[in-house]
Amino acid sequence: MSLGNILGIISIIMGIPGLWVSIGIETHREWGILAVAVAIILAILWWILNQPSWTIIEMMKELEIETQGSSLTTATITTKMRANHKGLTEFTHRNIRADGTINNFKLDSVKVVGTDKERRSQEHIVHERFKAMDFWKTRVSRLTYDLFNSFPNSTESTSYIPDYFTNKYIVEVHLPPSRPARNQKAYVGLGAEMKNLSTPHLSNNGLVIRWESERLKPGKYYTVEWDW
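and the corresponding structure tokens:
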């Protein structure tokens, strides 16, 4: 929301008492109604101004694992996001991490270079830049990258740690023909605490794991785990 819009709302609120006096508001009950109306408007304004930059409408994470151990895995993250403020020009993809090596980042099939990517300890970060967005507008981005030596163990997992409230999250893992999944599970954690969630669905003779969840909260980690 722009400064002009905010000032416009404040001007309207300040003008309400004068308007009500001009139309004959005199009783305590009527002034009480006015006070409640102003309080509601202020509460809505406070809520809008204190929204995080983004809301994730839907995120889908797809992993294509060629073979267990050292070969290539391709990750595709498709994100539909809504701007909660006017003028946003960047979305940051965080918490990209895994065993092994991660490289070949692309956004909408364009290679990510220079300052648009960085690494902090074990975490990779990709900065997606675009023209300034209007308030409440949406956009869809497609981030891909390659992983090497990332799934060497008999029990493996993939996690999502939301930076923003996420309305819907889908993860789909495609396994090689020689390594079907079993004992799949999903859980949410915060620190050392974990809670089991609905069981992921297996299809294609155990070669595809799919899990969906809604209303994911920032800061928690949502994990799908499997044996193979």
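(Above: one complete record from the training split.) The mean pLDDT is 87.
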